[in-house]
Write a structure and sequence with these properties.
Elements lengths: L17 H11 L15 H14 L16 E3 L5 E3 L1
Antiparallel strand pairs: 1-2
Length: 85
């Protein structure tokens, strides 16, 4: 499971088509984006190869969420940002 695109999520949970999921994600992703996909979404497995291929061609790389979470004395505010305590 990944986290949110800059304005929300992939909307894959609404059972939109794989093409719509791919278009939504690739048009909204930007540097530092974390994309949310739901494990049980119907068309996500079909959309992922297109998304990964296009974003790789655009120079994006993919890392596990564990590499993005800061260690140390941090809390997470209401917007999801990590803030020093």
């Amino acid at each position: 499971m990944f986290e949110a695109v800059s304005d929300g999520d992939s909307l894959d949970w609404k059972e939109i088509s794989a093409q719509e999921i791919a278009q939504r994600v690739t048009s909204k992703v930007g540097p530092g984006s974390i994309v949310l996909f739901h494990n049980a979404a119907l068309h996500t497995p079909e959309a992922l190869p297109t998304i990964l291929e296009q974003l790789t061609q655009e120079g994006y790389t993919f890392v596990p969420i564990s590499q993005l979470i800061l260690t140390g004395d941090y809390s997470i505010d209401h917007t999801g940002r990590q803030c020093p305590c």
